[in-house]
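dumping the sequnces here before i forget
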Amino acid sequence: MNKIYYLLLITLPFAQQLDPVDVALDELRTVVETASRSNQRVFVDDFTGLL
Amino acid sequence: MLDDYPETLMNIEWHNPSFTPGNSDFDIPEYSSRASMYGVGGIPHTQWNGVQETVGGYANGNWQAFIGTFTSLYNSMVGEETPYEISINGYAGSEVSYDVTISMDADMSNSNQKVDIFVVEDNIWSYWTGASQYHNARNVARDWLTTQDLTISTAGESETFSGTFDMDEDWNADSIKIIAIVQNYVSKQVYQVTAVNINDMNPDIDDDGILNGEDNCIDIFNPGQEDYDNDLIGDACDPCDNLVYILGNLNGDTDENGIPVIDIMDVLSLVDFLIFDDSYECQDPILNINGDEFVNVVDVIALVQSILNGDN
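..and the predicted 3d for all of it:
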């Protein structure tokens, strides 16, 4: 059982450590997704007549 | 303005029957439906992306006085981010078949989101009695083909709406367009629009020799049209083709050879479904492990037994 506690103790400090490569990839993903996001075109319902 | 922004500004002229000469066919029954949607009381009335309106102000076609207002409205809307893109393809003959595909590059709820598909005729030289002059009528509504619920809501998903309509002998075939929009029927917001001349539609997008309307994967080359589970969705584009999502493989994982793997993770997926009602696409047909009427803990036991017995 003690081994499990030791194992937990050792791994805990690293649990929240983010890989800088992952962070860079996330930033790149955000940039690409934003750049490729569809752009709104404009639609006009024009109610009219000929008289 | 339409000619100034041909790629980003699209209109549809709805002609009020009360202001349409007897010898004109510009008025169609659908006018009242569209007008009542916005509470249109009279003409002229413009509705920009469903949410901004101008009422009156340019009688007898003197809309030049409104160019500043229109330009301002246009600039306030064009280029905004939207999750939707629309493509229109099909085949044009005496009967026109069309495939309107909506794709999403970001998540958005599909609640009250609908797809409207219209037929318009552009550039009709016509006499405007009120203005005592001839003018070029742009994108006159000829038909409101359909309104369909949009079911997709997640980035990466797409949905295709197919149909046909007959060409009227009085229409100029070279000027007929299909317009498709995504609109929220509560807020009235139009989230995207695309228009295409029917002569510019691609009848076979993936160039596999199968016309779009008959192709079980419209945009993926699959001339063989393989469909293992006979659900009319080709294997090439069917995530639930029963090759991976077989009974018990609830998480859809495979080994390096593409063979489904049924293990403890599938048991956990089944438990997730039972406790949290947490399921996803393709799971429904493969949850009921023992084949009775219910999906319950007995199916968990059956799946565990199956794994322990090495049945898979």
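Strands of chain A lie at 42-48.
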